[in-house]
């Protein structure tokens, strides 16, 4: 029987257990995958702790990303065959379709044949970060060549994906990070400039970088007090897309900046893209083209073996990583 990761109560990484389960054959329209690597996401830590937008049903699986080899396909399936190298687009429900396991089954619309030169570790790190960043910057904001875009939590996998996508478009990515410790790594990763928010004045630095045109697009995972200086630096008609909430402090509503500049503050979940076949198809094409031509390439922070899933989650919550955490099987 295949091994999976489950938890029977909310809590820290120590509640995760490796267990064996029975696995039924794939049904019509489904693809069963022998997993080689998993990509870890903060959403999985939130689910484990009981603070995610989805509620766990115990014993609960978890996991949104995986890559591996097709083991079997359901009746009537076309386009996939045993032996194909594939990766998984994050499903809307990590509880109903958990990815942490040696053998997983997903509907065919969530399964992608990635470029042949992409290894399993990199493939497991593709879809959540690039779909999230693409959906915000390209699909919603319409980021254009030459425009300045501010990316907070820039050393996260999504932040780094946003930097790469901005560069692919020809935009100017400005990375926000808490301290200057990751400045050089962010510049090496493609950031045009870096602002250390705990050490520098965000508004004055952005005014210096963006000039009179200001910042039209802000891609934020943090919230909190930074809303005030971020919106103060934005140009009239600008859009701030919020996809996280990492700050433990309250997020003020910057009323004067919003009114005086006619700003849009927009909440965003990657589910918007995943649920819409047409938008998802465009996103896949953009990302696969970028993977093929080398303009997009996941940055792996650290890999762990499957047996060290608890340690991997501890590292996930340490905020020390630069890029994606991957677990290999």
Instruction: Give the CATH topology of the largest domain.
Output: Quinone Oxidoreductase, Chain A, domain 1
How many helices? The count is 11
Ranges with pLDDT <50 over ≥5 residues? none
- Overall average pLDDT: 95
| Oligomer category | single chain
Radius of gyration: 20 Å
Q: How helical, in percent, are the residues?
A: 25-40%
CATH class of the largest domain: Alpha Beta
Largest sheet: 7 strands, mixed
Specify the CATH homologous superfamily of the largest domain: Medium-chain alcohol dehydrogenases, catalytic domain
Q: What is the general shape?
A: globular
Q: Compute the number of structural domains.
A: 2
Instruction: Give the structural class.
Output: alpha/beta
Strand % is: 25-35%
Give a short synopsis of this structure.
The protein has 329 residues and is of the alpha/beta class. It has helices at 42-49, 120-123, 127-140, 157-169, 183-188, 202-210, 227-232, 255-261, 271-274, 277-293, 309-316; strands spanning 3-7, 16-20, 30-39, 60-61, 65-73, 85-88, 103-107, 111-112, 148-151, 172-177, 193-196, 215-220, 234-242, 264-267, 300-305, 324-328. The protein is built from 11 helices and 16 strands.
């Amino acid at each position: 029987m295949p091994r999976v990761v489950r938890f029977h109560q909310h809590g820290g990484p120590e509640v995760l257990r490796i267990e064996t389960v029975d696995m039924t054959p794939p049904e019509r329209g489904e693809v069963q995958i022998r997993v080689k690597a998993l990509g870890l996401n903060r959403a999985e830590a939130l689910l484990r702790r009981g603070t995610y937008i989805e509620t766990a049903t115990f014993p609960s699986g978890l996991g949104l990303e995986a890559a591996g080899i097709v083991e079997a396909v359901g009746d009537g399936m076309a386009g996939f065959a045993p032996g194909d190298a594939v990766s998984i687009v994050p499903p809307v429900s990590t509880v109903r379709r958990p990815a942490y396991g040696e053998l997983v089954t997903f509907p065919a619309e969530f399964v992608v044949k990635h470029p042949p030169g992409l290894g399993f570790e990199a493939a497991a790190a593709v879809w959540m970060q690039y779909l999230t960043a693409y959906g915000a910057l390209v699909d919603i904001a319409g980021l254009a060549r030459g425009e300045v875009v501010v990316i907070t939590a820039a050393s996260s996998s999504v932040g780094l994906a946003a930097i790469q996508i901005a560069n692919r478009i020809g935009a100017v990515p400005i990375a926000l990070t808490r301290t200057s410790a990751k400045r050089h790594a962010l510049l090496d990763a493609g950031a045009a400039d870096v602002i250390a928010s705990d050490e520098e004045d965000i508004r004055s630095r952005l005014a210096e970088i963006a000039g009179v045109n200001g910042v039209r697009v802000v891609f934020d995972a943090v919230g909190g007090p930074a809303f005030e200086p971020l919106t103060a630096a934005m140009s009239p008609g600008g859009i701030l897309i919020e996809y996280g909430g990492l700050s433990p402090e309250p997020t003020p509503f910057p009323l004067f900046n919003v009114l005086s500049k006619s700003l849009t503050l927009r909440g965003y979940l990657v589910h918007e893209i995943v649920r819409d076949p047409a938008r998802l198809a465009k996103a896949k094409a953009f990302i696969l083209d970028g993977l093929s031509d080398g303009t997009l390439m996941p940055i792996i922070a650290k890999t762990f073996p499957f047996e060290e899933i608890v340690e991997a989650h501890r590292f996930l919550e340490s905020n020390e990583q630069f890029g994606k955490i991957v677990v290999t099987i």
